[in-house]
Amino acid sequence: MNWPFPTTHQLTATALPVEFEALVPPPLLLPGESLEHYQALRQAIFADLAPRSAIEWLLAIDIAELSWEIQRYRLLRHKLLETHRQKAIEAALRHIDMIGIVPQFEAEAEYYTLQNALSWRTDPIAATEIDTRLARYGFDQEAINAEVYVETREIFVLFEGLLNAAQTKRLLLMREIKNHRSPGAKSTIRPETLKIGTEAK
């Protein structure tokens, strides 16, 4: 995950107390994710929430973890759309290039269709030529976008569920910190919402 974060010295530092370090789970980073960005996001959240007690630190740690998961889901959803765009290009090229192909040449035509779709993804010049040719046959960018969403509809719904669940839990935890600072306020979190696995409900 690559996006700019304020560095630690740019924030009003709220360092995690030594006695709570054991409570912070080790970062489970996927290939391509940055430990520096993870730590910067966590520090930014700690500085913003400024926890005042052990309970607030526990809540802040969970909020940081959920925030990282939300950023991850958004990035993975974007990558999913990119990957399936190539498949949508393949499908559009089949509509154009494989009409009228005799059966004995179908395998060869399919091979070249796959190669053209790969070239579309890796070669900007080829991509421009393919986009232009597809547009002549009515496959403009809007049509390709529609095909992408059709191809990804089930997985896209899964990511939307994960995002919504994580965002809801994060909001509840933030409200809990606010309630914890209000005299006489009661917890608004049900026990089942504190599971940090963020499975879609």
Tally of separate helices: 5
Helix content: 55-70%
Structural class: mainly alpha
Q: What is the H/E order?
A: HHHHH
- Biggest beta sheet summary: none
Q: What is the percentage of strand-forming residues?
A: under 5%
Give the overall shape, derived from the CA principal axes.
elongated
Q: Ends: how far apart?
A: 26 Å
Mean pLDDT: 82
Q: Over all CA atoms, what is the radius of gyration?
A: 24 Å
Strand count: 0
Low-confidence stretches: 2-13, 196-201
Description:
By secondary structure, this protein is mainly alpha-helical. Helix content is 64%, strand content 0%. The chain contains five helices and no strands. It has helices spanning 35-49, 54-97, 106-122, 124-136, 141-180. The radius of gyration is 24 Å and the shape is elongated. Mean pLDDT is 82; it is low at 2-13 and 196-201.
Please outline what is shown here.
α2 packs across α3 (106-122). Residues 2-13 and 196-201 have low confidence and may be disordered. By secondary structure, this protein is mainly alpha-helical.
Which helices and strands appear, and what pairs or packs with what?
Layout: H1 35-49, H2 54-97, H3 106-122, H4 124-136, H5 141-180
